[in-house]
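pinned: reference chain
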Amino acid sequence: MRWPVRVGGKVVGVVEDGVLVLRRDPNRHLYRAAPGPGWAVSLKVLQQAALLGAREVRVCTREASYTTSLQVFKTYGVPLNHADPQLLLPLRAWKVKRHPAQLPLLGPPDAAPAKTRRK
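pinned: its C-alpha cells
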C-alpha cells in the first residue's frame, strides 16, 4: 500500500513497501553548504514515515536514486534547522543508483526517416 506523508497538509512523499520515497530536484533540494553535500529531510517527515512502517529512505531525482536505511539516517544524520528541524545525511552515506540516459523514442532529432518498401 501507498501511504502519503504530509507536512502542513501538503503531500511531500509516500511510504510504499517500507520505503519512504521522496522526489527531489537536486538543483533546489540538494544541500551544498557545510556539513553537506547531502540530502536533508524534515524530522516531522521521518517520524511520520516511521509510524507508517518505513525502514528505508529513498530520494529520487531524474539522474539517480539515493537509498539508505532509516536507522542510518537517524544515527548519522546531522541536525539542521533550515526551515524546520531536519537531519542531513551526507552523500557518502547513501547507496546511489544512476538512471541510464533516456534514449529518444524515434531516434536522434536529425535522423532521416526510414525508407519503406512498397509492395
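why pinned: Helices lie at 26-29, 43-51, 70-76. The chain has a mean pLDDT of 87.
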